[in-house]
User: Fold Class I SAM-dependent methyltransferase from Streptomyces lycii.
Amino acid sequence: MRNLLTDHPALYETRFPDAGRLAGRWAEDCLRRHGAPGPRVLDIGCGTGRDAAHLHAAGRTVTGADLSGAMLEYARGHHPGPEYVRADLRGFALGRFDAVVCLDSALLYCHTNDELDGFLASCRRALPPGGLLVAEMRNGAFFLGRTELLDTPAVDSFTRQGTTYTSTTTLYVDRAAQLLRRTRVWTAGDGSPPAEQRSAWRLLFPQELRRLLACHGFEVLALYDGPGPRTEPPWREGDPPAATADGDRLHLVARRTRRDRAPFRRQPRIQQQGHRHDQP
Assistant:
């Protein structure tokens, strides 16, 4: 489905400015703090390339990958340095890296368990033992009993080159699919008709994410709600991670282990004759 900001990367950077490269600095801090074994980094879901370019400037050998051709073209022209390639994060084979970085909830575009398995299996193939996976995303646990992001549509505006763009965004939780669904209506001051867009993120819970990572051969080094590049207050150099994981953002650092771990398989429950198991 077409998306105003994805299809027009310059609008994306105007709507979400990051002049201080906060997300890229946070990712680089994670790589240094947890000891990425080498300089090769894959930024999967790289968008406009701002974070990939920052990691490149920090001395990394960076490949930025995205599914949007418009984003990749913009990245090559405005944030040079990394190699930019088209790839689907739900299943990719782009070579070997020392770290995989996945920011701004890109991981949550894996809507199904099979798509999540595809992402994590691809990351494992791409990393050596000791390689790092660094991710930042919305936190599914935040929506357990909290409705402040769901109760009222959010209205935001920004102006670029004399045109004001206004978005009205409604979120709701699709519990059966475990998705946070978004409907966004754009209006522009240039007289163009309103445009409606729909998208969704998978809601992952901290313990669910730990289990998925373990099944794919990753050891969780850090999993916390803040501070991070999208939290309030935002992360600053030297900030230690929190000991909690119930805020609206989730930050992950995991290390590929040296041993494969067999996928979890539930054993059938055996009911002995003469005994009855009560239903909950």
